[in-house]
Each structure stands twice: as C-alpha cells, then as structure tokens.
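The pair is set out directly below:
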Amino acid sequence: MSRPNKSDRAEAGDAGSAEPASEPSANELAPGLAALHEIVLHGHRVFYRSAGRGPVVVLVHGITSTSATWANVLPYLAERFTVIAPDLLGHGESAKPRGDYSLGAYASGIRDLMIALGHERATFVGHSLGGGVAMQLAYLFPEHCDRLVLVSSGGLGRDITALLRAASLPGSELVLPLLVNEQVLAAGQTVGRALGRIGLRVHTDLGEVLRGHASLADRDARAAFLATLRTIVDFGGQRVNAADRLYLTQAIPFLLVWGERDPIIPVEHALAAHRALPGSRLELFPEAGHFPHLDDPLRFVRVLVDFIDSTDPAEVHPDRWKEVLRSGVERPESSR
C-alpha cells in the first residue's frame, strides 16, 4: 500500500505545498506541447501526444476537452516519464464515429492505444470524464495499471453542474446548434477580450467551459458529446457511481486531486472517496476550481511526481483478484 498521506492536512484547511503568489500562472507557463501523432485503431484515426522516456504516465482529458489541456504539465513530466496524452474518440482531432461512447469503451481504447505503442503498464491520470475512464480501466484491466490518479473526477457521487444535467435532456440536440452558432461564440470571445482589456482574467473554469462549448460547433463532435454525456449523466445528476467498487482500488496506489472551489463536481466527492479508502492520498488545491492542473500546474507536477516516486507499482495477481471479487470486502494484496 502507499504510505500515509502527508497532505491530509488539506482537509483541515492547511494549504500545504501551495505555490507562492510570485510563481508564474498557468497562462504564463505553457512551455510547448508535444506534437500530435496519429494511429489507426479498429479503423478509426486516433490522435495523441507523446514525449519523454521512462515509466509510462497516461493523461486522460475530460468531456469536450483535448490532450491540449495538459499543456502546462506534460513537458515537465516528460523530463522523467514517457507521457502519453490522447484525444479521446469524439474529441479533438480524433475520429468521431457513430458508436460506443461508454466509459468501458473509452477504457478499452486507452488500453489498446498503450499496447499498440508498445507499453504494457502505466500510471493513469484522469481528469473529470477522464477520471471515470481511468477508474474503468483500473477495474477492467488491473494488470495494466501501476497507479490511479483522479483529478476532479466524475463517477464518485451524484452531484454535478446543472449545465451538464440540462444538456443530457431529450431534445438538447436541437438546442445545442443554436448555442454554438457564430454569433453566440463571437459574443463570448468579445466578453473575454473586454475583461482582459480592463485587467480582469477570465476564470480558468469559465475559459475552459467556453473552449469546450466552441468545439461543439462541429456536428460530429456534438453528436459524440451527447452520446458520451447520456451514458454518464441524466437530469438528476451523474448516473455512474463507482462507490460499490472503490474497495478494489485498494490494490493500487490511489491519489485524489481536487480544487476546493470546483463548481462542476463538488470537492465533497473527493472527501467521501478518501474516507472510504484509508490507504488513499488526497491533495486539495485551495484556490483551484475544476481544473487544478491549469490553476496550479507547478504544484500539480510536484504532487504527481512525489506520488509516483513514493509508491511502488501495483501487482494484482489473478487468483487473488478472484478471491477479492468473490468476497466483495477483502482487500487485495499488492506486490510492493
């Protein structure tokens, strides 16, 4: 198991290792993204970024986002690790077919991409939707998972922003095209420029939501978004909850990273998951929202590197895994 979480102080309000105000902001960092590469899997074009050498770290973005969300952390991680950041199917430059956009399908796609690139195991880091994908991957393919890192992840509770609940409603496919036409998008860009001129910076969450919103101007991306969203969200909130299987992650070093000001998926989900798994680690970013890797990328990199350095890769043996599944309560042993 991983060592006790020295950052649990954050639950009591301690900012811990938060960056000094004098350090550069997310917008000032961006040392440059690795180039996009292309591979064809199951007949579909999949684009991904890859850089560095060493143990493999896979970065999985959230809904309506792309691999570019990792711009401020990928180059630094690549100094120590082989980093792979895909554009999930239906997102970014990757294909947007009519097909299966469930968490299981995304997890299988990540597994297949890894193997096609010659990698058997990785530390999986998933943000928002990507957190749900990473959990599915760890559950379905534990033999490929060294560690699991969830960043403002879905799948840990019912609550979610009303915007996504509304978008999951029947008929939203008729409304979305009206909300992403050129006039509406131009108005959003004008507001952002106006705030910049008077010295105000658009909050990271708003900026990323608007960026994702703009991506839905593409009809195929819009269809993929709705197909994905409706597998995980309905008007009542998140449909998928991993609470009944979280005990399985005790076989794998497990880190939760969350912004205390997350307006999309509340921080209470992280606190509840951490309480349910005494061996897990929790890192709260007091000034961050839904995108802590953008709000405080330097701290994010430090936290992730420390977690990897201080834990051994999981080794879940099939016979023991079978026993745990049959018991439903026992904790699988790891070879550490």
